[in-house]
């Protein structure tokens, strides 16, 4: 399928890396431009015309402009009809999307303060009580993932790798490499090692990213 694809966003963004790993799983080529912190500003009129939220990533292709990383990932997988990554049938598709949405709405918010404090070492995020609360919330969410992986024994929704594992896998890498006390989660650890065999995970997680 001939398809012109451009992705705007810096690779230090976990949301940009969701899209890049998805592209790698699909085997599609793209152009990428650095936008965001340290690069071209997302508050510029040029960027805001593409995404009024001033956030990366943004996708530009033959069909127009898209923002929101999870939506971009769904779109690309559907465009290339990779039903192994995102099933066509409503029930199995919903199970994959359930964990995609959990990553975005439950897991991501849990780490916000602690990540900025401990990893980014942002001076605006140094309240000890809020750091402690953030670490607890982050570990608690990972505990839910531990329970799920203990049931499936392989990937987030079952025996097969899906789009949900791209999103959740990058988040597991971020948690695992943050300087905090990690509870013993053997199923999460086994999952991490399983993902580490995939080229996309090696490129967009293991290769110096957090």
UniProtKB/TrEMBL annotation:
All copies of domain GST N-terminal, residue ranges: 3-84
Domain GST C-terminal residue range list: 89-210
PROSITE patterns documented for this protein: GST_CTER, GST_NTER
Keywords: Transferase
Molecular function as annotated in GO: transferase activity
Keyword Transferase tagged: yes
InterPro entries in the cross-refs: Glutathione-S-Trfase_C-like (IPR010987), Glutathione-S-Trfase_C_sf (IPR036282), Glutathione_S-Trfase (IPR040079), Glutathione_S-Trfase_N (IPR004045), Thioredoxin-like_sf (IPR036249)
PANTHER family: DISULFIDE-BOND OXIDOREDUCTASE YFCG, GLUTATHIONE S-TRANSFERASE-RELATED
Family, similarity comment: Belongs to the GST superfamily.
Protein's name in the database: Glutathione S-transferase
